[in-house]
Amino acid sequence: MMRPWIPLGVILLWALVALLAPALPLSPNSIDLPHILTPGSPDEWLGYDDLGRPVFDRLLVGARTSFLVAFAVVGVSLVIGSLLGTIGAYAGGWLDLVLVRVMDVFLAFPGILLAIALAGVMGPGIDNVVIALSVVSWVGYARLARAQVLSMKERDHVHAAVAIGTSPPRIIARHVLPLIGAPLIVEASFGMASVVIGEAGLSFLGLGVQPPTASWGSMIRDGTRYMLVAPHMVIAPGLALMGVVLSVNVLGDRLRDWLDVKNQPQNSFKSPLP
């Protein structure tokens, strides 16, 4: 079993590179024609691509692209999906029915195909990628929040808050949302891996980040034409993508186990009487 510090280290390295990339002395778009398709060397670890650009520098810039897209999409989807699911489940009635029907419509389409269609209609670009993936991703958080709130609003402490005249917004903010935060956080950790793959897939198809900006997906797309003569163009971004997605999934599994109340030690009741 993979030790937890390994995926945590990969995620921290990914975040550190993404945040420090603008301050690093990188030249991802610098063209050096004599080094076209040159493999790795002590001077340039990962070699050069088909235009003579350093693959290592472009890999670091691609890490920043995937990091920004992943956190933007997960943040927007988590907030919108959680609010809609919570409000619909707590209010019930026609509002909850409309929300469920809207979620059914979104779930009727494969997520990646819907994202491709939206990105194709809106046009390529990192902003449109964030919008397209957010439109696809909010449904999962809404379904999870709705299921949790339907169970939570029947708890005794919620009934007690209603009995003393607490307003619904205050009940949701103080007595419901704090208790459904753990499963939503776990869902967000798995959702981040899906968004990284989705961004790479859209960039691979030419619907994501546009040249000359680097993206792991576009780097893999450019390298597929030279796999026999320059496999490093595909191997480097492919391994980076696999490492980040695998680490996020493993860390999500560990986080789910840690937050699961079934795995928490139960404190035995001790009577205060002698």
In short:
The chain is mainly α and 274 residues long.
List keywords for this structure.
274 residues, mainly alpha, 10 helices, 67% helix, 0% strand, elongated, disordered C terminus
What value does the Rg take, in angstroms?
23 Å
3D shape: elongated
Distance between the termini: 46 Å
Largest beta-sheet characterization: none
Portion in beta strands? under 5%
Question: Which class do the helix and strand fractions yield?
Answer: mainly alpha
Mean pLDDT: 85
Uncertain segments = 267-274
What's the multimeric state? single chain
Q: Give the total of beta strands.
A: 0
User: Counting H and I runs of at least 4 residues, what is the number of helices?
Assistant: 10
Percent of residues in helical segments? 55-70%
Order of helices and strands: HHHHHHHHHH
